[in-house]
Amino acid sequence: xxxxxxxxxxxxxxxxxxxxxxxxxxxxxxxxxxxxxxxxxxxxxxxxxxxxxxxxxxxxxxxxxxxxxxxxxxxxxxxxxxxxxxxxxxxxxxxxxxxxxxxxxxxxxxxxxxxxxxxxxxxxxxxxxxxxxxxxxxxxxxxxxxxxxxxxxxxxxxxxxxxxxxxxxxxxxxx
Length: 175
Prior knowledge:
single chain, 9 helices
């Protein structure tokens, strides 16, 4: 990873990201796995940079009687070069993850904005609502038109009381 990439990853405020995306466990888990993998790779890289990579061939020559083997191993070790690893596949995976995370974040933003709009509308309706003592029958019918049909059906059946009303609201006439 480039120095700019490392600097970017170290400046990310992970607790804030986790708290913002707390309702999206899949994204939070993916980000946590990415962060953990990055930190482990960074730790291994720093350990490798700090480690001593030289081999003391003289000590092996003193221990082993066949110094030709040590000479061959030393020659191989000296000709060995560090191989650069192609990171294209890992970068593609990271790009795909990033695209998925961006898509999920955009969806989350849209859902949140829709919820906020609904809540704002509800608050507006509550603020503009009249007290129940000021409601008229026409207001109730306008809000719930199915009440008229239900009432007409009950009258046609000859029922002038609502089922379950007396059980729910007992009559105080007996007192």
